[in-house]
Amino acid sequence: MILLTNDDGFNAKGLRMLRTEIAKVDDVVIVAPETEQSAMGHAITLSAPLRVREVVENGEFIGYAVNGTPADCVKLAVTELLNEAPKLVISGINQGGNLGTCVIYSGTVSAATEAAIIGIPAIAVSLNTFVNPDFAPAAEFIRKLVPTLLRKRFPEGVSLNINVPAIPRDQIKGAVITRQGKSRVIETFDKRIDPRNNTYYWMAGEMRFNESVEGTDTEMVANNYISITPIHYDLTDFKALEEMKDWNIGF
Predict the structure, then answer these.
(1) Residue 75 region by backbone torsions, left for phi larger than 0, else alpha for psi between -120 and 50, else beta
(2) Which runs of E-coded beta strand occur in 47-87?
């Protein structure tokens, strides 16, 4: 059985398209947030109860909607809701790319990371657009990739962050293994006044490309390739670790 989740919410088109495709090759169950939880990062719910709603559509059980974060959904699914651990967790298909440093903020990526922490193979999948998304090519690619993912042994603690360019299927040049880039969103804030004369701010921004080496996720998606980046939850910088050994820090 394959577990599906996301951060766009249980009824998101990307998730539903993914379910339709993956159901062609394996049993699937959805455990996903009741409402959108974008940019939640790896947040988990500690100060409130998690409520679960069983979802049946047209007489068919399809999963559980949870009033929590993507990471909550994976934890709850594995420990309480499912009779057995899933053989694969797929998070997505997210609307909007998760490229460069955006992976830090992404609830989609964090759901896959949570599965990796638990010890379950996992991938996060994103379509690199917010405008008129066509999830079909991404869903088809993941369906075809699933048999390979189930055969291969994932390195310990590793999940895969997959980004698909938002172009017609026949224009996608292929899929490549990439490294995470350094590109990031440069935020701007729109200052506004509400009807009661209180100031508030609405965050906006755009992705700025800042790559110094070839083969990054941002570069390859911009060049019409599907990017597959292995990521790990251990954030230690081992180069810095070695350099800091002679700092002679005392107390």
Answers:
(1) alpha
(2) 52-57, 60-66
Cα-flanking dihedrals φ and ψ of residue 103, to 5°? -60, -25
- 53-57, 100-104, 155-159: which range is least confident on average? 100-104
Q: Is residue 62 helix, strand or coil?
A: strand
Residues in the chain, how many? 251
Task: Please state the pTM of the whole predicted model.
Answer: 0.91
Paired tokens of 120 = 């379950």
| β-strand partners of 179 | 216
DSSP 24: T
- Are 38 and 78 spatial neighbours (Cβ–Cβ below 8 Å)? no
Pick from 74, 22, 66, 70: which is nearest to 43 by CA? 70
201's tokens:
């701010």
Q: What is the identity of the amino acid at 224? A: N
If you average pLDDT over every residue of the chain, what do you get?
A: 92
Compute the C-alpha angle 181/187/188, nearest 5°. 155
**With 0-12 CB in 10 A as exposed, 13-18 as middle and 19+ as buried, what is 238?**
exposed
Q: pLDDT tens for residues 167-215?
A: 999 999 999 999 998 877 676 788 899 998 899 888 776 666 666 567 8
Contact 167, 127 (CB under 8 A): no
How distant, in Å, are the alpha carbons of 117, 129, 135, 198, 201 from that of 204? 32, 15, 24, 20, 10
pLDDT digits (tens, 9 = 90+) for 14-69: 999 999 999 999 999 999 999 988 877 898 999 999 999 999 999 999 999 999 99
Q: What angle do CA 3, 221, 33 make, to 5 degrees?
A: 30
pLDDT at 102 over 80: yes
